[in-house]
Amino acid sequence: MHLQRRLAVLSAVILGMTNGPSQAQGVGTYFAPQKQIIAIRAGRLFDSRSGTIQNNQIVLIVGDCITDVGATVQVPAGARMLDLGSATVLPGMIDTHVHVNTGGNTQAQRALRALANAQIDLAVGFTAVLDMDSRGSFYTVDLRDAINSGIVQGPRMQVVGQSINQRATNYYPDAHSVRFYDGFTEGKNVNSPWLARTAVREAKLHGVDYIKIYTTQDFAGTVHMWKPDATLVNSPSLTLEEVEAIVEEAHRLGLKVACHAYGGATNWNVMSKTTGVIDFPNVMSKFIMFGMPLSQIIACATVNAARVFPSFDDRGTLNVGAPADVAMLELREGTFEFLDNYKGTRTGHQRLFPAGTVLAGKQVQRA
Length: 367
Known about the structure:
Elements lengths: L1 H15 L20 E11 L4 E11 L2 E6 L9 E4 L4 E4 L1 E6 L8 H17 L2 E6 L7 H10 L7 E4 L18 H7 L8 H13 L4 E5 L25 H13 L3 E5 L19 H10 L4 H8 L1 H6 L17 E14 L5 E15 L2 E2 L4
Parallel strand pairs: 1-4, 1-5, 6-7, 7-8, 9-10
Antiparallel strand pairs: 1-2, 2-3, 5-11, 11-12, 12-13
Helix pairs in contact: 1-2, 5-6
């Protein structure tokens, strides 16, 4: 319902632009004014340098940059104060594998869904994401660029556009002939090393940041991928020669390659029984339930992710000089039920809830 409401609002905005003299949003609409000063008073703050949680800290932001952090920071007169009480302040989180497109029958619907989902990510604290497959077309490149230009609000994005996968080992019903293939599956012909190189060059031409390949098939189509004993069927995709050609060509063009592969990996992203919503703070709460320190959990979603991906290496910290990307989470005490991978019930006594986001010095308004 949340996504449907968001889409309805987006549609209303688009329709409203055609019904009056209002000026359309331009470049830089969602940039923070360079002279704006915000001070965040945090009851708890994650310090990425020490890997610990610090108490009673202040983060000072001027424009889109962090200028001071500490317990004794002097707040200038006229600064806007965000007093978060006991909430935990951390660097904007980084999700290194998302799919902002979740469906749609037309390109316009798919683009709107992608924008809405990107904004949902931002609202819960993700200020940077890596979209790992547009499920057809390169509109995620346009979305990335619109966000970077301040035309729309969303997390900083790195995108692969359309993934590279020859899909020769999993059949698809052809209910609508060519339309089905064009609309819902990657139709790139990579059935040889040279065609694979061509696909990489085309993706580079469209402006992607990474190349995404499949060495095992995904779960699309009608073939069930589980054996009776609950083990996964390993359904191969690209050949070794095709993979080598893709990686070599991508590196030659300055691109890195991400790979879809499976072999029974666990999925922690199972909904909470108390909320019915799939969200990352819920996943983080599960690790708290199993005894992982909060500081380590936060590090995995911030500074560690930034170290792994060079495109995000200026993020993941609240150090002086870092981009002013800040996530705020509230740790609540109580009794919370979670579902494990087998839909069994697990009980925990702490749960994280989103409390706010600042992106590049601008507070994100939650719907």
